[in-house]
Write a structure and sequence with these properties.
The chain is an alpha/beta fold. The chain has a single domain, classed as TIM Barrel (Alpha-Beta Barrel). It has 15 helices and ten strands. α5 packs across α6, α8 packs across α11 and α11 packs antiparallel against α12. It is globular. The two termini are 31 Å apart.
Length: 401
């Protein structure tokens, strides 16, 4: 199915469900766009027996002087709100005071400390803090190079309740874990020592999972994270797992099913392996045994786009999609989740609502997270008119399921 026909079908489904599409609405933003979006998302998910979706907005839309995301309103309607990406402890406190349901952070260690302090200060809200989601962004990239086995190990060491990550799809239809559509030379180097530059960049869509793990080592440090380290002495589980999987380095690109295996390996390492006598071993094993996976499909969120066609971004600079189509994303990622029986521990998130709609239709056991940036991302420039037609100014619903 082409992307164009897919976008048309999805729009038709949402319009039919909500029954509020008008030509006038196509040219205006709803008064309550986030509630409207989530109402439409809920109705679609419910129609297919899928769980109520979660809203995951950028934290600035909650913390500005005139916040565009009304948490109380969304909670009243039955929606959870988990913002991204907050690294400053005071902002974490401010979000917690708003009673968000979790926070995605590059520094899960700082977030856990703040949550512990706030829980001690508010004993009457014990149930809220017990369910609070501490999500390690890209494995917790403030401490280790992002989206690598050592970063996921660090996230687990910090007792994160969720590992957040990103995916593309390889030539052999494997859900490769990486944030960009290509392996960035700022983060990765060639294993054979040959130069690797932006001009010679390799897109995930153009390489197999096996070749990616033979070609790249993604252990470069980023100056924006002064506490980031790549010392393998800090990542003993990753080292042991790399040996077990015959990887050339713990820092080779990984993929979703391998991350599932790594997490199980981490549990065994602290329950029965070399780490069982170390401090916090039982606590680490118990947490990793139930940790969740919040996995993003990295595809630009515009319908009717074509590979290589320039598309607008939030910054106004043109970019391009060099990925597989939404259906292939869903078949690959959701398929990996289902094959590993991880539907009760994994959710699919995206700025591209096409992949979320397909997940709800075809893999209804997997929860969905609707990622949003600025309110502008809900306007005609970034969101298909047909989808905005499903977001009324004052949506009415009987409550989330």
């Amino acid at each position: 199915m082409s992307i164009i026909s897919l976008g048309t079908r999805i729009a038709a489904v949402l319009v039919a469900l909500t029954g509020i599409a008008t030509a006038q609405q196509a040219n205006t933003m709803p008064t309550n766009p986030y509630l409207g979006l989530m109402t439409a998302a809920h109705d679609h998910a419910k129609a297919h027996g899928a769980p109520t979706p979660v809203l995951s907005p950028v934290d600035a839309t909650l913390l500005s002087a005139n916040p565009s995301v009304d948490i109380a309103q969304l909670h009243k309607a039955g929606f959870q709100v988990v913002p991204w990406t907050t690294n400053d402890p005071e902002k974490m406190r401010a979000l917690i005071n708003l009673r968000v349901d979790g926070i995605i952070s590059d520094r899960p260690d700082l977030l856990r400390a703040v949550v512990k302090e706030e829980a001690a200060a508010h004993p009457s809200d014990a149930a809220y803090f017990a369910s609070f989601d501490i999500s390690a962004h890209r494995g917790g990239r403030g401490l280790r190079p992002e989206n690598t086995l050592p970063s996921f190990e660090s996230g687990l060491d910090q007792l994160s309740t969720t590992l957040e990550t990103d995916t593309g799809v390889s030539t052999d239809h494997v859900s490769l874990i990486w944030h960009d559509q290509f392996y960035s030379p700022q983060s990765c180097r060639r294993a054979d020592g040959a130069p690797y530059t932006l001009e010679s960049r390799v897109y995930l869509r153009d390489i197999s999972s096996t070749e990616a793990q033979r070609t790249f080592i993604c252990d470069k440090l980023h100056t924006q994270f002064p506490d980031q380290k790549n010392d393998l002495a800090l990542s003993p589980v990753s080292v042991a797992f790399a040996q077990h999987e015959h990887l050339i380095s713990p820092y080779v690109p990984t993929y979703v099913e391998q991350l599932f295996r790594f997490t199980a390996f981490y549990v065994d390492y602290y329950r029965n392996g070399p780490g069982k006598s170390l401090p916090h071993a039982s606590e680490r094993a118990a947490n990793a045994a139930k940790v969740r996976f919040n996995i993003e499909t990295k595809i630009l969120p515009l319908p009717n786009d074509e590979p290589g066609k320039p598309l607008p971004t939030a910054t106004g600079e043109p970019t391009t999609n060099h990925t597989v189509d939404p259906q292939t994303f869903v078949t690959t990622l959701a398929g990996a989740i289902a094959r590993n029986h991880m539907e009760d521990r994994a959710e699919i998130q995206s700025f591209d609502f096409r992949t979320l709609i397909l997940t709800e239709e075809q893999f209804p056991k997997i929860p969905t997270y609707y990622l949003t940036a600025s309110p502008k991302m809900l306007s005609t420039e970034f969101v298909p008119a047909a989808l905005r037609q499903t977001t009324p100014a004052n949506p009415q619903r009987s409550g989330a399921n």
